[in-house]
Design brief:
Layout: H1 34-37, H2 39-54, H3 61-81, H4 84-104, E1 108-112, H5 119-126, H6 138-146, E2 151-159, E3 163-170, E4 175-179, E5 182-186, E6 192-194, E7 206-208, H7 212-223, H8 227-231, E8 233-239, E9 243-248, E10 253-255, H9 261-275, E11 282-286, E12 294-297, H10 299-324
Length: 325
């Protein structure tokens, strides 16, 4: 104790030393509060989430989403089931029904040029019964008409609000064409206009063989220069698509060459004028060689000829024996 009765405290017990008053304690690094570290997140989140938080689902959105889902499912089923054409036709029918209701129903159809194709067939190909004039595709209708072998050309004209004008140009019948045992009616260009022969076409000339339908027009035009042969013609057969054989009504076959057919026909006319070759008892005349004509007799004529030759030969032998005696 000091003289005043106070207790003297040890400096070391108090944890202080004389030099500690002059030194500054080392400052510890302070950790940034969590709120300060996330300040930039706090600034950006409102920008990102603000529009989303402010978005309000429109009224009826659930119903619309359900309808879209049902439509998508139905479309998928239509595609997978192969019913697209049926749906398209139904939509077309609905569209035409609406157009007909507002005044575009086809009320009158003018048709010209048809002879072999009936009016009902033409209207069916155009689709008049189902279509409205507003949505009728004239180009497609014309294409359908010209797909018919009888119709060479067609015109479809729409006259609003309710009239339709159709003009067709049909192919002419020209000849009958036989191939593989089947006979068809053909036009001059070789088009098969009818795959069977009606009674009104039985008088047409008959051409036979592959390719004959394409070459018949030129060949029959040549035969027209020889009315006697053309009038007696039963059929003309194209052989190997190169040359023609004629079958006349009396059963006579005439074999023509591949080239210079007119010369061969001139020869045939000359032989008939001089020797009545077309009315004789022969089965065929071969004109394929330019320097000779070969004929074949029928069986009766050939037998009669053989017997005549034998008789002539016997007479010759008997005459020879008499001369020797």
């Amino acid at each position: 104790m000091d003289g005043g009765g106070r207790l003297t405290q040890s400096l070391q017990r108090s944890g202080k030393n004389p030099g500690s008053a002059r030194r500054r304690p080392r400052a510890r690094p302070m950790r940034r509060p969590a709120i300060e570290r996330s300040t930039w997140i706090g600034r950006l989140l409102p920008r990102w989430l603000g529009p989303l938080l402010q978005f309000r689902v429109p009224r009826g959105a659930g119903v619309a989403a359900t309808a879209v889902l049902i439509l998508a499912s139905g479309s998928y089923g239509v595609v997978r089931g192969g019913h697209i054409s049926t749906v398209v036709e139904h939509l077309k029918d609905t569209r035409d029904a609406v157009a007909n209701t507002v005044g575009f129903r086809i009320a009158a159809v003018a048709l010209t040029g048809n002879k072999h194709v009936t009016r009902e067939e033409i209207l069916g190909m155009v689709g008049v019964a189902r279509a409205s004039l507003l949505f009728l595709d004239a180009d497609a209708a014309r294409t359908r008409l010209q797909s018919n072998p009888w119709i060479a050309e067609a015109t479809v004209l729409k006259l609003f609000p309710d009239r339709l004008h159709i003009t067709v140009k049909e192919r002419e019948v020209f000849a009958l064409w036989q191939k593989d045992g089947k006979v068809s009616v053909i036009a001059p260009d070789g088009t098969v206009v009818q795959p069977y022969v009606a009674s009104r076409f039985t008088g047409l000339p008959l051409v036979v063989g592959g390719g004959a339908q394409l070459k018949a027009r030129e060949f029959l035009a040549l035969l027209d220069r020889y009315p006697q042969i053309r009038g007696d013609l039963r059929a003309a057969t194209l052989v190997a698509e190169r040359r023609w054989n004629l079958r006349l009504k009396n059963g006579l076959d005439v074999r023509l060459p591949e080239t210079d057919v007119a010369r061969a026909l001139d020869t045939l006319i000359t032989l008939d004028r001089d020797k009545k070759i077309l009315s004789r008892d022969i089965t065929s005349i071969d004109l394929r060689l330019p320097d000779r004509v070969t004929v074949r007799l029928n069986e009766a004529a050939a037998q009669a000829r053989n017997e005549a030759l034998k008789e002539r030969e016997k007479k010759g032998k008997a005459k020879g024996k008499g001369g020797e005696a």
